[in-house]
Amino acid sequence: MELEKFIENFAGQFEDVEVGNIHADVEYKTLDTWDSLTAMSVQVMIEDEYKVDITSQDFKSTVTVLDLFELIKSKAF
Amino acid sequence: MPKASIKAIAYYLPEEKLTNEDLNQSFPEWSADKISNKTGIFVRKISSKAEFSSDMATKAAEKLFAEFDIDRNKIDFIILCTQSPDYFLPTTACILQHKLRIPTSAGALDFNLGCSGYVYGLSLAKGLIYANIASNVLLITAETYSKFLNEKDKSNRTLFGDAAAATLITSDVGICEIGEFVLGTDGSGAENLIVKNGGMKHLELNGVDIEIDGEFVRNDNNLYMDGGEIFKFTARAVPDLVFDILAKTNNTINDIDLFVFHQANEFMLNFIRKKIKIPEEKFYIFLKSCGNTVSSTIPIALSEAIIEGRIESGNQVLLSGFGVGYSWGSTILKF
Questions:
Q1: Under an 8 A CB cutoff, do B231 and A35 touch?
Q2: Which CATH superfamily, name and number, covers B180-188+226-334?
Q3: Contact B231/A at CB under 8 A
Q4: Inter-chain touch A41–B232, beta carbons under 8 Å
Q5: For helices B227-248 and B266-276, what crossing angle results, to 10°?
Q6: Residue B290 is a catalytic residue
Q7: pLDDT by 10-residue block (mean), chain A, 77 residues
Q8: From B231, which residue of chain A is nearest by alpha-carbon distance?
Q9: Could you give the 3-state DSSP secondary structure of residue B82?
């Protein structure tokens, strides 16, 4: 599982204006366009691409995109 | 071989408006711009206190008869799709026969489906025509979901609007032929989109507002939707539905000229569109002036796409409806 590909998939769930702002260290919940709808599409993307179920608690416990990536990795293997 | 075609479509929206600015006044954290950016909706139309499904259905049908010069005496079947009927009984379609002065020799029935209802209605109408039971079927979709909504329910009040649409399906020549169908059902999702009280199982309207951290969650007297679960269901079921109807008809995405889906909200529609990889220019969205009108979203969008000139003779248009039940269905119209 590659970080670069994950960031691309993650950014794909955001509005176009936001995509350039998304990198491994960004605190994703502070982004202007992050909201419950974006959270839902990120959830579905992670299930589709990585076969991992994530919950709203997982969003609460992670800060950066890298945190989320590491969490999925730990759940996937 | 018999043929079943759509002859004409008309729709009716109630007068009363609920704008994003109105919502912003009730829910200050909900900015008007944010609502329109996410949902694609600027205004919903709301039935008045004394306006019910039968009234809106009558208006939509009268509009259809007038605009397309349709002889009501030739209608031999009325199908009404509604989840907000006037009464438990009689059937609202029977009331419509009388209100619309359709001959008493016509058959009439209601069926209870939500966002998949229009596609199911087309399948029933086609069946009646192919079985030589009827030749001119009046299919009406009418919902007053606003009457199910709790005033504090920010999410659902943002999405849903009231409307009715009338479609005439004929064995004669029409604007498009109704093709094959793929349908599906999964009742395991019943609790995720539900009006629990008021039916026989929970007849008493004894619901109370349930709030978490000061935020309204549900009241069993009102419509409840678990947005996250519905989103997940849609994200899974709709791509399969589209691929199934394409496979069944030996088509690919390239063979379809326009996709008209149930207009749930723009965010969800775009998510599904990207997932299925449908080009944006082939994906019709019409939400701005009416919101999610349940079973009427497809006929309203189809009618607007025709008016806008988005559909030409020879085109294939794929319809997909999905939602409460869960229930889903898809068909291809040949113009």
A1: no
A2: Thiolase/Chalcone synthase (3.40.47.10)
A3: yes
A4: no
A5: 40
A6: no
A7: 90 84 92 87 90 88 95 86
A8: A40
A9: coil
